[in-house]
Every structure is written in C-alpha cells, then in structure tokens.
Amino acid sequence: MQLDFFPSRTLTLYMAKTFVVRILAVLVMLVIVLLALDLLSATGDILTPEGNGQAEIIRYASLRIPQLTSRFLPYSVLLATLITLVTLNQNSEVVAMKAAGLSAHQVLAPMLLTAAVVAVFSFAFNERVVTRANSALKAWEAVDYGQVPAASGTRSNIYLTDGTNILTAATLSRSGDQTTLTGVTWYERGPSGIIREQITATGATYAGPGWLLENPVRFDVGGAETEAVSGVVVGETLTPEQIDFQSLDPDAQSFWELSETIDAYDAVGRRTSEMRANWWHRLSGPLSALLMPLLGSVAAFGLARSGQLFVRAVIGMALGFAYFVVDNAALAMGSFGGYPPFLAAWAPFFLFLLVGETVLVRTEE
C-alpha cells in the first residue's frame, strides 16, 4: 500500500468536487421530502391555536430543517458515496486510476478528506444551530404551538419527583423564586406507586415552600370524581434550584454546556450515564461521515461488466445502514447504563472502521 495518498492534485479536486455535489444533492432531496411529510402531519396542530397561520408554518419548517439536516447528513454521505463510486466504476474511471498505479486507499483518499471536512462542519453546525433549534422547537411544542412565555431560560417537558409523587409541566420559565410553570400535572401516589389523585392546572408559581397551582382541577382516582379546587400547594420539597437542576435538556445544550452540566451532576452524586453517552456521541456522531466512503468502497472496485456492481452497491449500503443500527442500539444501551458511556459512543465507530478497512485491504490491496 502506497503512503502518498494524494499523488494527483487534479484528481483530488475532481473527486472531492464530485463527492460534495452529490452529498448536497442527496441531502437537499432528503430534507425536502422528509420536511414535506412532517408538515403534512404537523400543520393541523400548528394551525389549531387562534391566530396561527403561514408564518407559524414557516417558523416550524425553519426549526425542523436544522434537525433533519443534522440527522440525515451521515445518510447523505453514504448514499453520495455509493452514487459517486458506482458512477466512477461504470465509466471505467476506477480502472484508469488503478492502471495508473493508484492503490484502493489512494482512490478513496479525496473522498475521505471531504468526509472529514463534512464531519467538522457537522459538529460545528450541531453546536451552533441544532441545539438552539431543539430548545426553541421543544418549548413551542410544549405549549401546543401557542404563545411561548416571553422569558429567558424557557424549557419544556419538565418531569420531577417529590418522594413517590410526580410533578410534570409543559414549560418552565425564568429562574430562582420567579420560576413559573405552565401546563402542570401533579400525581399523588401511594407507597406502592399507585396513583391516588391527579391535579391538573394551567400553571404554577413558587409559594415558598411548595408550588401554588393556578385553576387546579382534582381527579380522585378511587371515587372517579372530578372537582375544581383552589389554593392547592404541591411539591413542598421542590425548590426552584432543584427544578432548574432537574429540568435540564441535554439536546438543547452545546458540547461545552453539557460538560458543565455533567460536572454539576457528579458533584451532587446524580446519575450521569445518559448525559455522558450523549456527550461522547457529540464527537463520534459527526465522525460517522468519515466511515461512509470506507464502508461504501466495495462498490468502487470490481469490473462493471462482471454483473456484480449492483450486488457490491447493495453490500456497501447494507454495511452503512448496519452501522447506524448498531450505533443507535449501543447509544440506547449506554443511556440505560448497560454499556459504559465511552464504549457506547465509540465502539460502533471503531468496529465498523475495522470492518471497512479489513474488507478493503483483503479484497483490493
């Protein structure tokens, strides 16, 4: 195997340009199709609140596009890899490169370099754009696409425990003693965990101690009776500081903010395996783009007229999608504590790196 991976500047620029164009074309196609399908299912909910119209639909689309772009960029790199390599193979360009003395690694080197640049862009895009879109969209969805409270630090989907009891809220706004909750539900449970009563309220404010519910409605599970009540205070052991601490959303935090959150959780002895797995995956996830040219390289080699090109393309696609399946499964296991966070985030990457490299060396080098 030759170690000069870029012997021709012209060839490098040609392949890199071809690869980038196909990545962008596939990504735009996927995002447009998936966004259209998403809008078909979400438009009704978006237009339900009074006053919502086309501007809100455009706002929803602007928040979903970064999410879809981040999620499907690795898939776009995989599909672009297969399209590029199959085209080069069919046009006998790979044969010409091999005849000129280039090794399989030299043929793939421009694409690997391009994929590395895509990985860096993906990391920066996730940190600067996607996390903010996640935070804004979750807060908006939590109020059913209505008016999001005009306050700093708005969070959504709050889930808190007070002994055996549970307090949930659609959104949390502000901080400290000025913290307000909206869309509140309080579940009072017995020692065995069975819910005895449920109280729903439009909001809650800190009463010091406890949380004063606004317009509460109590449902007695045992008697199956519903009644409007007033002056109800719940969660007397939950302070604003505890709620701020428990309601953090890792998906809405940047890489550096998540690092600080993990340190804060460690300081008080809280479980951090899910956050650590997410933290490591912030690095390994974008790097998955670097694997795609290697896993799809099986489509580049072998004579097109041999009739095996389609089979090779299918094998390359299968290897790529197998990586995504294993990666998601490992990340889920890491979040539940089944795997160490580092292993959950990095094991699939290194496993398929070895698989792709082994296949390439054994068959082409």
Counting helices, strands and paired strands, the structural category is alpha+beta
What is the quaternary state of this protein? single chain
Low-confidence stretches: none
Query: Would you count the extended β strands for me?
Result: 8
Report Rg: 26 Å
Tell me the helix content: 55-70%
- Overall pLDDT score: 83
Distance between the termini: 7 Å
Largest sheet: 8 strands, antiparallel
Strand content: 5-15%
Task: Tell me about this structure.
The chain is 59% helix and 15% strand. The chain is of the alpha+beta class and 365 residues long. It has two domains: 9-144 and 275-364, no CATH class; 164-236, no CATH class. Strands 1, 2, 3, 4, 5, 6, 7 and 8 form an eight-stranded antiparallel beta sheet that branches. A hairpin with a 4-residue loop joins strand 4 and strand 5. It is elongated.
Provide a compact summary of the structure.
With 365 residues, this protein is an alpha+beta fold. The protein has helices at residues 9-47, 54-90, 93-99, 104-142, 240-246, 255-267, 273-295, 309-335, 341-364, and strands at 155-162, 165-173, 180-189, 195-206, 211-214, 217-220, 225-228, 233-234.
